[in-house]
Specification:
Elements (H helix, E strand, L loop, with lengths): L1 H19 L32 E9 L9 E10 L5 E12 L2 E17 L2 E16 L12 H4 L3 E15 L3 E7 L5 E5 L3 E5 L4 E7 L1 E3 L3 E12 L2 E13 L3 E8 L3 E9 L4 E10 L10 E10 L11
Antiparallel strand pairs: 1-2, 1-17, 2-3, 3-4, 4-5, 5-6, 6-7, 7-10, 8-9, 10-12, 11-12, 12-13, 13-14, 14-15, 15-16, 16-17
Length: about 300
């Protein structure tokens, strides 16, 4: 079984890097500080791994105080089949950065392989539509002769395909994914052509350590790769009290430090808040970023047990 799991993950690594290795230029996928509470947002392989119908909503207001600063909303919904072999889900994302609005509608499906009494290896895929709208006229000079560029906005829809692998046990979780593999470009008349790079590779991991009877510590990390752009990463350490209250601190390479709090109000409902303070080259961008998270799990009647997740 160990050899099979190793071979399965090795195949996933090769496939992901092979498909994603193409020269693109542009921006990364929307990112959240509370990524560790919503793995489905970056990895289709996570669909169904909450073991119930699960809904998560995140809202991020970046660089508070700056006009037209980035804002992002995301809703993920996923569930596990009765036979516990298949997971299905949907991602809805609305991301606005300056003159650009980026919306995603994605469907996820995953296959779960039981690798132990309390461990599961999952392989998932996603397909969907990426809708982009850009108001280029607002930043161009008045001497514009191309009538297409002179219009108030330009929009285009793109197909999305992605793949992800995820391993989950009681204390350890890790995942590798490329959630948007297809190249995208947008031509604005004869005067402007934009290539968008949304082919990211994400490597995620976290481990929960017991600290006595009531406390646990959970470090996590998210590594983000985009060809032509320096590798970036997020790191986090969270202290958990009685599987109910969590306090954490995060660092995003060259961008921000953050604090977060999460409360599992019941075994089904959780809420979180994080605040990012900009550092490095973006330290002058506003007073910080605010992010809220709410999560609800419709626990199946046959498995209504208290869960730290």
């Amino acid at each position: 079984m160990v050899r099979f799991v190793y071979g399965f993950m090795k195949m996933g690594l090769v496939l992901t890097f092979f498909v994603a290795a193409n020269p693109l230029h542009g921006q990364q996928n929307p990112q959240f500080t509370q990524y560790m509470f919503n793995p489905l947002g970056i990895n289709p392989g996570y669909s169904g791994l909450d073991g119930a119908l699960s809904l998560t909503f995140l809202n991020r207001q970046q660089w508070s105080g700056i006009p037209n600063a980035p804002t992002t909303q995301a809703l993920t919904v996923h569930a596990l089949s009765k036979r516990k072999r298949l997971g299905v889900g949907i991602n809805l994302v609305n991301d606005k950065v300056g003159i650009h609005q980026n919306q995603f509608v994605q469907g996820n499906a995953s296959y779960h392989l039981q690798t132990g009494q309390h461990s599961t290896l999952s392989m998932g895929m996603l397909a969907g539509i990426n809708m982009r709208r850009s108001d280029y006229a607002s930043i161009l000079s008045g001497n514009v002769t191309d009538p297409l560029v002179a219009n108030a906005s330009v929009s285009k829809n793109f197909m999305d395909l992605g793949v992800g692998f995820y391993f989950k046990s009681r204390r350890f979780e890790t995942g590798l994914s490329a959630p948007s593999l297809l190249p995208k470009n947008l031509s604005v008349g004869d005067s402007l052509k934009v290539d968008f790079a949304t082919t990211n590779i994400f490597l995620f991991g976290k481990y929960r350590f017991p600290l006595g009877l009531n406390f646990e510590a959970e470090p996590s990390a998210l590594v983000k790769y985009l060809q032509g752009v320096p590798i970036s990463f997020d790191t986090n350490i969270t202290l958990i009290y009685k599987s109910v209250l969590a306090l954490g601190a995060s660092y995003r390479k060259g961008e921000s430090i953050a604090g977060l709090i999460k409360a599992d109000v019941t075994s089904q409902f959780a809420a979180g808040y994080s605040y990012d303070y900009p550092v490095g080259k973006v330290s002058g961008f506003g007073t910080g970023s605010h992010e809220i998270m709410v999560k609800y799990k419709f626990v199946y009647a046959s498995s209504r047990v208290s869960s730290p997740r």
